[in-house]
Write a structure and sequence with these properties.
This protein has 413 residues and is an alpha+beta fold. Helix content is 47%, strand content 12%. It has helices at 41-56, 87-93, 101-120, 148-152, 155-160, 171-174, 181-197, 207-216, 228-237, 248-252, 255-264, 267-280, 284-296, 301-313, 318-327, 332-344, 353-362, 367-375, 377-380, and strands at residues 4-13, 16-23, 28-36, 65-71, 74-80, 133-135, 141-143, 163-164, 401-402. β1 (4-13) and β2 form a beta hairpin. The protein is globular and about 55 Å long. The two termini are 29 Å apart. Bound molecules: adenosine-5'-diphosphate (ADP) and magnesium ion. Magnesium ion binds at residues 131-132, 145. Residues 131-132, 145 line the site of magnesium ion.
Length: 413
């Protein structure tokens, strides 16, 4: 705490408090998270690991880590202060006026760059939501809140609960399947949808209906003023099968976004990004061959999906069609990364995740979800008054609600 003056309390979470502080030497404002350290030594070790992890995230679109230290049973994490609020506030302040598409894409591309950065480092955020995306007055967007609360939870709740905001929780979590990099993509899709409609894609007045909506992947279409690109991106990011969702790199390689990346990044990172795009966009023949081999390993459902994609793309220009085709396929590198994440995150007792996984997604709503919906008394009730605290856009509140005991933490960091 030495060297810092506390200016105000920004908020309180399950972990402790977030303070706005002034650093006397640099004459700069920072956010300081004051986290209560758990009693057990393994819990403390986990907290420290998390601080180390945060320190490794160095990217213009990720809230910068300054330092961390421990004092009086607390861990303090000092990070960059974003002086223009968060995306959730921005959405509320719109009062129903839709954002221009340029603004949405300008924010979205920065969020994708942040997600790409963390995924490249094999880190899963697991709590991507508009409230955790911060803004600066210079127009930068920064992903923050790297889940220290999650790692610092009581050891039992750490093992047995998934802490997240239910609106952003992807179908695979409700299905008791492992969280993976594509689960973050689903949540990112929820933010993109919110930016386009000022509403959550999946809303309901009870747990049961919320889960059913998420697991069916049913959402209202976007306002027609938005381009095919935005409609298409959202459709891809809301694929029920995580494997069919694009990775952050694949999204960024889309023509409409690559142009924007240059404006968002310092030149050295922009050059590195161009290189990645080149690698992602394989020559035609090569791409076709790769595609064949990927499809051979996938379920027959993809045939229908491909046919749908063809029908859809026939309505659009060749460039749009080319982009649309590229989006559904990951590069070899991304597929490898996905498999590695899956392999180390397999369900206990599951020997062949890829097959189990495929079978799971062939069904409409899995038995797991239906069992949960039938058996959990919590689900038959409506949201509690605390949970239904509504925002200006009529949404039940963005409270973090611990979910069900069977949803255990399986993230690979
Ligand atoms: P929670 O999400 O549980 O409220 P956070 O630590 O994410 O906990 O945030 C606590 C409060 O501090 C919130 O009001 C949030 O908007 C604010 N906050 C967190 N990090 C930053 C940051 N880097 N810049 C500005 N405000 C922040
Ligand atoms: Mg937060």
């Amino acid at each position: 705490m030495e060297g810092y003056n506390v200016l105000k309390v920004l908020g309180e979470g399950s972990f402790g408090r977030a303070l706005l502080v002034h650093h006397r030497i640099s004459d700069q404002k920072y956010v300081m998270k004051e986290i209560r350290l758990p009693m057990s030594s393994s819990g403390v070790e986990n907290s420290r690991k998390e601080a180390v992890l945060l320190a490794k995230m160095k990217h213009p679109n990720i809230v910068a880590f300054k330092e961390s230290f421990e004092a009086d049973g607390h861990l303090y994490i000092v990070m960059e202060y974003c002086d223009d609020g968060d995306l959730m506030q921005k959405i509320k302040h719109q009062g129903g006026n839709l954002f221009p598409e340029d603004t949405i894409l300008h924010w979205f591309v920065q969020m994708c760059l942040a997600v790409k950065h963390i995924h490249d480092k094999r880190v899963l955020h697991r709590d991507i939501k508009s409230k955790n995306v911060f803004l600066t007055q210079s127009g930068k967007v920064k992903l923050g809140d790297f889940g220290s609360a999650r790692l610092l939870a009581h050891p039992m709740s750490y093992a047995c609960t998934y802490v997240g905001t239910p609106y952003y929780v992807p179908p695979e979590i409700w299905e008791s399947l492992p969280y993976n990099n594509k689960s973050d993509i689903w949540s990112l899709g929820c933010i993109l949808y919110e930016l386009c409609t000022l509403k959550h894609p999946f809303q309901a007045n009870s747990w049961k209906h919320l889960i059913l909506k998420i697991c069916k992947g049913s959402y209202d279409p976007l306002p027609s003023q938005y381009s095919y690109e935005l409609h298409y991106l959202i459709k891809q990011m809301f694929k029920r099968n995580p494997q069919n969702r694009p990775s952050a790199s694949t999204i960024l390689a889309r023509g409409c976004l690559t142009k924007l990346v240059k404006n968002c990044l310092p030149s050295e990172i922009a050059n590195e990004f161009e290189q990645i795009v080149k690698e992602t966009k394989k020559p035609e023949g090569n791409a076709a061959r790769q595609k064949g081999s990927v499809m051979a390993g996938r379920s027959s459902n993809n045939k229908t999906e491909n046919r749908q994609r063809k029908d859809e793309s026939s309505k659009h220009s060749p460039l749009e069609r080319k982009n649309a085709e590229g989006l559904s396929e990951d590069t070899r590198e991304q597929r490898k990364s996905y498999q590695e994440v899956s392999a180390s995150a397999v369900l206990p007792g599951s020997t062949d995740l890829s097959h189990a996984h495929r079978r799971q997604w062939e069904k409409k709503i899995s038995n797991t979800v239906l069992d949960v919906l039938e058996n959990a008394s919590l689900l038959s009730s409506s949201f509690t008054p605390e949970e239904t605290e509504t925002s200006s856009c009529g949404l039940p509140g963005h409270k973090e609600v611990p979910l069900f005991p069977q949803f255990s933490e399986r993230t690979v960091l």
